[in-house]
Description:
By secondary structure, this protein is an alpha+beta fold. 16% of the residues lie in helices and 33% in strands. It has helices at 5-12, 18-27, 175-184, 206-212, and strands at residues 36-40, 45-56, 60-67, 78-79, 88-94, 96-105, 108-119, 127-140. The protein is globular and about 50 Å long. 35% of the residues are buried. The mean pLDDT is 92. The structure holds zinc ion (ZN).
Amino acid sequence: MKESRFDTIARRGLLLPAETREQIRATGIRCRPQLEIVYQQQSKLWKLRGEESGGAVELLGHYVGFVDKRGNTIPWLQRVQNFIPNGTHAIVVTGELVRVEVFRYEKTYDLLITKHWLEGDANRRPELRSAILFLGRNGSLETELWDRDSVFRGAAMPRFYQRSGEPGGPDSIWTESVMKATEGACCPGCRHSHLLVAATDCPETEERAEVMA
Ligand SMILES: [Zn+2]
């Protein structure tokens, strides 16, 4: 069965035109929305592995990070520090997660929020399931978070509209995560993990117990 455009976006992340991808590559920003299925020998469990990654230059930004299905922060397995900025910042390995991806060109933003989980029995390699929770194109945010208005970083997000002109942003449970991913896409020379946090900074939740298991 041929995969639809939306299936591809749900699985692999925002579909950006080849010219845009080329331009991002030229800036050295390395944002990697793809997820991997990994097998943990000790616990004999299949898990999902994601890389929080990306950053910005003045002109554009591309950032991807992860939260749980309720929009709460989740802990990284490992923090990654690179000499070269705008690359991989942290690794998460867990059973299910929500991915928040932001692409910015000047003051125009694309936003994709997707949920990912594994389906199948314990004996075989499971299938990766993905669903789009929100996809917004050409959102706008007038504040120049990467420069003049950097004080607002982490507290602002782009506005999205429906074709009818009515507001069309994501559900409010995603607001905080979107603000953080927006911050990443407006963070020149990014060396932070804007969404994933150290386990000690993570509120104790059901999901966290699951993540740590
Ligand atoms: Zn940053």
